[in-house]
Amino acid sequence: MEQFLKLKEVLAAVEADAEKFYNAGNSAAGTRVRKAMLELKNIAQDIRNEVTAKKNESK
After folding, report:
1. pTM, full prediction
2. Which of 24, 26, 29, 50 is geometrically suited to a Cys-Cys bond with 17, CB 3.0 to 4.6 A?
3. CB 26 within 8 A of CB 19
4. pLDDT tens figures, 15-49
5. 46, 56, 55: which is closest to 3 by C-alpha?
6. What is the pLDDT of residues 7-17, one digit of tens each?
7. Helix, strand, coil shares, percent, the chain, to 5
8. Contact 16, 24 (CB under 8 A)
9. Distance between CA atoms of 19 and 47, rounded to whole angstroms?
């Protein structure tokens, strides 16, 4: 659950940069969005691995 909360925090933090990139055309904000998306991808993969491990534990 800790990883899921971290994922939500990162997503909330990048929201302002996404607004700046898409609405104002700020390319530096786009770079920050890309970096955050990579971090989200890695966190999501960790969550998947955690869920799979927990699911297999109960078998």
Report:
1. 0.83
2. 29
3. no
4. 999 999 999 999 999 999 999 999 999 999 999 99
5. 46
6. 999 999 999 99
7. 90, 0, 10
8. no
9. 27
